[in-house]
Amino acid sequence: VMTQSPLSLPVTLGQPASISCSSSQSLVYTDGNTYLSWFQQRPGQSPRRLIYNVSNWASGVPDRFSGSGSGTDFTLRISRVEAEDVGVYYCMQGTHWPFTFGPGTKVDIK
Amino acid sequence: QVRLVQSGAEVKKPGSSVKVSCKASGVTFSTYAFFWVRQAPGHGLEWMGEIIPVYDTANYAQQFQGRVRITADKSTSTAYMELSSLTSEDTAMYYCARGAPSGRYYLCGEDCFDYWGQGTLVTVSS
After folding, report:
1. Which of B11, B40, B63, B76 could crosslink B92 through cysteines, CB 3.0-4.6 Å?
2. CB-based contacts of B36: which residues, under 8 Å, 6+ apart?
């Protein structure tokens, strides 16, 4: 089971933001990798992958997004929130089949 | 460039079935699994299942077992998701996405969920 906090995050433009994601079991696979990804879903759009394997940027993702964590606890950080960052953010575990998403964190501007 | 193009919106009666297609281009179709994800209005993302074309194998999330059938046509690089016995609770956006490489379809890392279709809205209403 994947959980996220907070579920709603009002942010100020230009300020940092942070979302936490926890798994009920370790996401470290026997090959040593941790298959935890983050997705952004802007209003009316398909989800877009931001981060894979905890901290690796997907193609085209701005470096103001960063991922960290290990084992069961993970964090997505936005260093300086921009208006285009409004949307819902999901973590997803890809270590244990079937893959599961967190409930999502809605980010909007204060 | 990888593209996944889904079929258009559907309106269905309760008790009927719907079949949604997802045509892939720019990718060797048999090299990857392809996923289907559901998103009910105002809700989060729910992984429904996958097709692994090279093995002609489909796997389903437990909550959809018995009601969903995912298939693929390798000749047209198209994946299909058919959902039966529809109720109003099946009203949702349905997305396809590129899954993991076929040889490691049970792990989702670098080459996984990196491309998504535009979504297909299925509305179930009497």
Report:
1. B40
2. B20, B22, B47, B48, B49, B50, B68, B70, B79, B81, B94, B95, B96, B97
Q: How far apart are alpha carbons B54 and B120 in whole angstroms?
A: 25
Q: Are strands A8-11 and A105-109 parallel, antiparallel or unpaired?
A: parallel
Chain A residue with the nearest C-alpha to that of B41: A44
Residue A98 pairs in a beta bridge with none
Q: Smallest Cβ distance to B47: which of A29, A58, A100?
A: A100
How do the pLDDT tens digits run along chain A, 110 residues long? 999 999 999 999 999 999 999 999 999 999 999 999 999 999 999 999 999 999 999 999 999 999 999 999 999 999 999 999 999 999 999 999 899 999 999 999 99
- Tell me if chain B has a CB within 8 Å of the CB of A106: no
Burial of B80-103, coded b for 16+ CB within 10 Å and e otherwise, reads bbebeebeeebbbbbbbbbbbbbe
Per-residue tokens: B36: 């289907």
Which of B15, B10, B29, B7 is CA-nearest to residue B77?
A: B29
